Amino acid sequence: GFCLGRFGERGPASNDIKYPLDVTVTSDGHVVVTDGGDCSVKAFDFDGRGVLAIREGFCLPWGLDATAKSEVILTDSEAGALYRLSADFQRGELKKCQMIRSRLVSPRAVAVCQSSGAVVVVEHLKAPGPSKGSTRVKIFSAEMELIGQMDSFGLNLVFPSRIYATAVAFDKEGRVIVTDVCTQAVICLGKPEEFPIFNPLISHGLSYPVGLTYTANNSLVVLDSGDHSVKVYSS
């Protein structure tokens, strides 16, 4: 692909991005980024002008996703919390920053279902010794009630291989999709009410998938850090 523009250069200015961890685009056309460098959430318009920077109260903001109403659901990995941000991005005004879930274990990737409002979060569980630990996928309803959860150990009892989830998304039908770096695959875990099922969507051609999203025409875009590429798959 061709680069259409760039902004948020690394630097000391308030609109600079020091260490980006995740990005989303709201339905009203604003780009929102978590910056681990100064523990903030920053919003830009599509021309790259900084419209809002939220620095108060976060320990390590990590993953984020926009809702259909242009609100932002955000994980704070160090605080073990999930937040909902409401803002008037046109005016650069934060309306509300509400903690909607606490006592999570190092939550990172998060996704919001645009149709139902359900939220899925990937927690990173620490393990003793040199092991990098495991992950746990939690699904919440739009009212933030826990619908289901499954960790790597539990998935391993049901599925043929260990899963270490690095990214998560909902497809257009409301199914939970995760990237798995253990099997170098993209896997469908089903809808919240049938979670978990095991349906590999992409099992070849990936090296170390760490991000994914769906486009408006339902193509699946996968970020592969193993060979530093963006790969696009048809539905």
Give the key terms.
235 residues; mainly beta; Neuraminidase; 4-stranded antiparallel sheet; globular
How would you describe the overall organization of this protein?
The protein is mainly beta and 235 residues long. It has a domain at 1-104: 6 Propeller (Neuraminidase), CATH 2.120.10. It is built from one helix and 19 strands. It has a four-stranded antiparallel sheet with strand order 1-2-3-4, with no helix packed on it. Strands 5-6-7-8 form a four-stranded antiparallel sheet, with no helix packed on it. The protein has a four-stranded antiparallel sheet with strand order 9-10-11-12. A hairpin with a 4-residue loop joins strand 14 and strand 15 (185-190). The mean pLDDT is 90.
How do you describe this structure in short?
With 235 residues, the chain is mainly β. Helices cover 3% and strands 48% of the residues. It is globular and about 50 Å long.
What's the CATH C level of the domain at 1-104? Mainly Beta
Query: Uncertain segments of ≥5 residues (pLDDT<50)?
Result: none
Report the portion of residues in β strands. over 45%
| Gap between N and C termini | 19 Å
CATH homologous superfamily placement of the domain at 1-104: TolB, C-terminal domain
Main sheet attributes: strand count, strand direction, barrel closure = 4 strands, antiparallel
Number of strands: 19
CATH arch. level architecture of the domain at 1-104? 6 Propeller
What is the helix tally?
1
N-to-C order of helices and strands: EEEEEEEEEEEEHEEEEEEE
- Which descriptor suits the 3D outline? globular
Helix fraction, binned, reads under 10%
